[in-house]
Amino acid sequence: MTSVLKGGFGSPNSAPLGGPNLGTEFVNTICPLKGALDGYDNSLPCSRQTISVPAKFRDAMAVREVVFGEQGVPLEAEFDEDDARSWHWVAYASVATHSTSPPKVLRRADSANTPADDARRASATATRVPVATIRLIPPPHGPNKYVQHHETDKHPDADPPTHDQEHKQPAEPYIKLGRLAVLAPYRSLGLAKLLINAALDYATANPDLIYRPPSPTALEMAQILGHQKEREITWQGLVMIHAQANLQSMWEKHGFHEQLRNEDGHVEIDAEPHWFEEGIEHVGMWKRLPIEKRKRLSLSSLESA
């Protein structure tokens, strides 16, 4: 029998009284793993991946496989080409147990764990187990994958179909949040909010990591062509999600809306038609993060540097 230890969750900036900042104790940030995921086999569960797949990423996949598996998402659709270039966040719970083994649903079945992995998760009184995750996909985003019905991406947060739509994606770069998953026993603890804020705060603070800044030459040419062209080659804080319709109100609490308006109230991005994936209604939603002007790369900032 397991139970969550008091204090198992905290804000990324929390710290014990009089002690060092331990904000990463229960939320891990995973930077793009790129080639480290080359050997990932999407026909196998995370517990059967090779030891070359980083343990933290397998933690994220353990949560995703459980949550989206419950929704009928095929295993082979869970890992995709965006995972290697994305940032991932994983929230952990300290779970009291009589043994040092994680709950059965997340227990690793392979022998890939190192002693360091086990020591990181277990102590005499508790085990640290992954219970929630989210990912952030940076620009660029390719064309929709729904060319024909049989080629449809089977995951609920995949790009929507293009048929019967005149909606156009914005020309400027945008990031995409997705694969938000929280294990059922932990869904009333504010973990979704914790992870969403962690991802958005990271993006706001690190715009040049999220999207590689253009060269001074490219910026100069964009300025000659006008403000809109410059906007098309720099990330201006635009974020989108493909939300399950029943969770739309939750995303609205985080500032996302189907129709994006600027500070003057003018429509920047129109709402698009809803669509269904695996029988689940979905909706596209947008938000613009308040990227600090000093963090936005521009020609003027380059000239003054």
From TrEMBL:
Q: Where is the composition biased (Low complexity)?
A: 122-133
Write down the SUPFAM superfamilies for this protein, in alphabetical order. Answer: Acyl-CoA N-acyltransferases (Nat)
Q: Provide the GO MF annotations for this entry.
A: acyltransferase activity, transferring groups other than amino-acyl groups
Q: Where is this region: Disordered?
A: 101-169
Q: Which Pfam families match?
A: Acetyltransf_1
Query: Biased-composition ranges for Basic and acidic residues?
Result: 148-169
Q: Which domain of life is it from?
A: Eukaryota
Matching entries from CDD domains are given as: NAT_SF
Start and end residues of each N-acetyltransferase domain = 159-206
One GO biological-process annotation of the entry reads:
UDP-N-acetylglucosamine biosynthetic process
Lineage runs: Eukaryota, Fungi, Dikarya, Ascomycota, Pezizomycotina
Against Gene3D superfamilies, the record matches this protein to: 3.40.630.30
Q: What is this protein called?
A: N-acetyltransferase domain-containing protein
